Amino acid sequence: MNSFSFLHVEYLLQAAVWTVVLSLVAFVFGGVAGFVIALWRVSPNRLLRNIASGYIQVVQGIPLLVILFVSYFGLAIAGFKLTPLVAAGISFAIYCAAFLGEIWRGCIQAVPRTQWEASECLGFNRFEQLTKVILPQAIKIATPPTVGFMVQIVKNTSLASVIGFVDLSRAGQIINNSTFQPFTVFGCVALIYFCLCFPLSALSKHFERKLNVSHR
Amino acid sequence: MNYTFDFMSVFANWDRLLMGAWLTIQLSALSIVLGFVLGTLCAIAYKSRHWLVHGLVKAYVEIIRNTPLLVQVFLVFFGLASIGWKLTAETAAVIALTVNVGAYTTEIMRAGINSIHPGQIEAAECLGMSRFHVYWHVVLLPAVERVYPSLTSQFILLMLASSITSQISAEELTATANLVQSETFRSFEVYAVIAVAYLALSFLFRGAFWLVSQIAFVRKRKLGTNL
After folding, report:
1. Domain map of chain B by residue range?
2. Closest partner residue to B67 among A61, A66, A194, by Cβ?
């Protein structure tokens, strides 16, 4: 039985890199899809609105763990041999799209109605209204909750360990299996997660104060 | 794609899956109640003028909110066992979930308590209400009513997150699905079925929370207006 040493910490840090990679993949792909969902959610077309809200209802009503399992095994059935990174990336993108879509919908709707009306009076079409008037204001409102949600993403990547993705949590389990020092190992894992997440939380709070959105 | 779906072998195990779902409900309900009490107490303690109490609550909230539930579950289950405090998987699950949701509830309840106008408290004091009565009737109950939507969505997220406790072999819905999967090798079918089951559970919880709000918030039920 070997005990917890500096080598293990190095291994954990290497695994933490994969946690960060997966978080970024999830955020980028989930963000793109989430943006589409948010636009659909405020679309004048009722069909698009219903599709988007149905998607959000379903994904938010299923645990991420189950989404991971379903997409991992489901894609395998469909004949795609996927590496755990790709399978996890797809699941997280599905998951993030639903949450970011709903967050951003709220931000778009938080822009006063009169802004839509005023830009309509200026003869803007819907695309111009969105890109020139609404979105620049919505982005300001959206920044704090989006950064806040990034914390959720980083934390939730710990679940990717169940489909064999060696991220920080999985590395912790592997080390724990050989050293039997759960407090030290998982304490260390928790600490690394904390170091990843806390700056993001603080940043989110900072933006919230700086953009002073809540008091407008 | 030449794969024939076989849901029958999954439905053959419906009784076990139902037991799993029941345990999910029990775990979540217990953690929600305990976590709500813990979170409310912490939210009150957060307002404390004593720096140690304030600091402790703040540290608790920040630590829990910035680490994954999975790691917290492992710490409780394996960590406490390693110092000789052996817990069943279910107990460890309830402890971890309670501590987790308690931190989020603290933040939500703190926002609710902060939203109470100081004039309300002064008015209550002028009416000669005791400190406890002021806190209970004027601060806490309206605060809960105001943040109730956020609380319920947090609690539903907790119910979904309870699937994580399958990793320490608490026999709830996901863990049962894992077992059925390893016996029937119908992995996609099993997880698709429990995905639907979780969806149903989240609607069930939403309904239950609506019912609770109807019973608890008398003023709202009678007037139909928000605070």
Report:
1. 23-170
2. A194
C-beta separation of B20 from B173 below 8 A:
yes
- Check whether A16 has a pLDDT greater than 60: yes
pLDDT over 80 (residue B3): no
Domain boundaries B23-170, CATH class: mainly alpha
For chain B, say whether A194 makes contact (Cβ under 8 Å).
yes
Q: Quick one: average pLDDT of B71-100?
A: 92
In a domain, A165, yes or no: yes
Angle at A206 between CA A202 and CA A207, to 5 degrees: 120
Judged by CB atoms closer than 8 Å, whether chains meet at A197 and B192 is answered as no
Q: What's the CA gap between B143 and B141, in Å, rounded? A: 5
The pTM is what?
A: 0.90
Q: Could you tell me if residue A160 is inside a domain? A: yes
Domain count, chain A: 1
Closest Cα in chain A to B204:
A61
Residues A193/B66, Cβ–Cβ less than 8 Å: yes
Q: What is the overall mean pLDDT for chain A?
A: 90
- CATH (domain of A126): 1.10.3720.10
> Under an 8 A CB cutoff, do B71 and A176 touch?
no
B-chain CB neighbours of A167 within 8 Å are none
> How many Å from the N-terminal Cα to the C-terminal Cα in chain A?
60
Structure tokens at B38: 């813990």
CA pair distance B55, A31, nearest whole angstrom = 35
The verdict on a CB contact (< 8 Å) between A190 and B160 is no
Q: Measured between alpha carbons, how far is residue B38 from residues B31, B89, B100 in Å?
A: 10, 21, 10
Residue B85, token pair as written in the block: 């405090």
Q: Which amino acid is at A125?
A: N
**Chain A residue with the nearest C-alpha to that of B194:** A66
Range of the domain at A117: 6-215
Question: In chain A, how many H helices and how many E strands?
Answer: 9, 0
Q: Is residue A1 part of a domain?
A: no
Per-residue pLDDT tens over the stretch B120-177 = 999 999 999 998 899 888 999 999 999 999 999 999 999 999 999 999 988 999 999 9
Give me the interface pTM, i.e. the ipTM. 0.88
pLDDT of residue A214: 53
Q: Which amino acid is at B117?
A: H
Distance CA B209, CA B207 (A): 5
Nearest C-alpha of chain B: how many angstroms from A164?
Answer: 13
**What token pair was written down for B7?**
């849901």
